[in-house]
Amino acid sequence: MTCIVQKFGGSSLSDVDKIMKVAGMIARAKKQGMDVAAVVSAMGKTTNQLVEMARSISPKPPRREMDMLLSTGERITMSLLCMALNEMGVQSVSLTGSQCGIITNHRHNDAQVIEVRPFRVLDELAEGKVVVVGGFQGVSYKRDITTLGRGGSDTTAVALAAALDAERCEIYSDVDGVYSADPSLVTDARHLPEVSYPVMQEMSAAGAKVLNAQAVQFAKEKQIAIYAGSTFDRRRETVVRKFQPGKVAGVQAVVSEAAITRVRISGDLALAGFKKALDFLEREQVPVKEIHAADIPADSDPSRVSFVVSSPDVYGWEAIRERLARQLGNAVRFDTHLGALSLIGEGLNRTNATLIEALELLERHDIAVAGITTTSFRISLLVPREKIDAGVRLCHGHWIAKMG
Question: Is the distance from CB of 306 to CB of 292 less than 8 angstroms?
């Protein structure tokens, strides 16, 4: 029998009426002769509410206890959805991440899936049941409950699809797929019917909220096509899959991350300070990116090492930042006035033409660039946070909207 995995985001499950509609979708798929595993997020803004409750008690709540708290949101949803399915005459069973065999490393709040042992899921599917799985969570090899970070339910769905050898993985939310920019920011953003794995991964890592970057990486490794669409508007979708080389070239999307912190370390012992900072942040389980280091005399360039933290995604970041400042003293600086503007596309940096064009475009419109990072599929520019939105519209209009 054909097996599919369907994932439903929190906005698709925000109230009882929506839960009943989602149950109807699942029931229809089941009645078409498919084995269905459904992965669910917490209802609506439940996760945010739980985070705020924790922060009202502690500015830096223990990460292990945060995972215990946050994992409850998905358990509520999966139980209610199973009740709805059973009312429709569809046998179903709810399973937590640990019950369905999602094994992670021992990092809390942003754990990585290392193995999926879907024996219980397979047994329940073989009995004709729909299996409803709480997304965003797993269990570490030390048997602690862990969560997978922002958008982690996507990772749950793709990892489960790989383990079940599912025909497809469907990701449903409140948008009908992937766009060339955030439609709430750019009114003429284009719907993208197809996106390659690396482009989607770069978009996710650079701030796009449609799919989780770890989920896309998992899909790429296992060659699982992801179908992203709207729960209640099925007229179109975006398929994320492998592309043939040269199928698409140039800028395909403009993505931004408005709230970041750039950490700069200076002085003659900057590299030693950088290692100390990395060790500290690793213990605090704070991921860093966009690392730059230069062996330049301190009096020539006061910031010899820098890196970026996506600070809104880090629980207790303010307290962590203060502790890091105490450890490194005057050698460390925190830039909180910057945001990241990213151009994403296939073969974007085969030449320097796009980067030069971007710098000239921003300069003409008085948008100062404070840092540059490039990969094969991305050009990221650090610009003043208050000019991020204008920069996105400007770049989208220059490269994408003018395509006609």
Answer: yes
